[in-house]
Please model this.
Amino acid sequence: DAGITQSPRYKITETGRQVTLMCHQTWSHSYMFWYRQDLGHGLRLIYYSAAADITDKGEVPDGYVVSRSKTENFPLTLESATRSQTSVYFCASRDVPGQGNYGYTFGSGTRLTVV
Amino acid sequence: GESVGLHLPTLSVQEGDNSIINCAYSNSASDYFIWYKQESGKGPQFIIDIRSNMDKRQGQRVTVLLNKTVKHLSLQIAATQPGDSAVYFCAEKANQAGTALIFGKGTTLSVSS
Model:
């Protein structure tokens, strides 16, 4: 199916564990993004990628690692999960703007709980 | 750093009324703005966008107004329906190639029938 998919949809993990959230898009969009959404903070950018093998930090990158070996995948890894990383994580993608449209398409999100 | 904020965290309207959701931004270098709608349990969905060389843009039942003088953005929804109940976010992009969007904290719109 065409689109952007995130997995898992829900995840519970323990403090200190490593966990990877997956994001896959089928459009071959150049840009991909990871945001976290918390009450009172809206959406905050964790990392983004402009193309395969090119990644850059966003507003809140500490404790997270990303990779982009293939254009269609952009996994987000929490190296050692902490309770403060309990959040809803959204992946998004967009192509190189053709008509000045910089809008993203978002996935459905992963709700992560760290206990 | 720049920030995007909404004036009111919640807005309650009656079905059929017009809704106005406001957003203030602080980065005068931002050249592109978007409104997103997020329903419960879903990812944000694109509603409408506007570039900084425009003052107004209309879509289906929605209008976005941009006032660059006071760095203010608004989303107007005509004849609001219960299906419009959601959280609405504004987002801005600074005038740099590839720069990611910065989102405001969101306004929750509740529509009662």
Notes: Chain A has a mean pLDDT of 93.
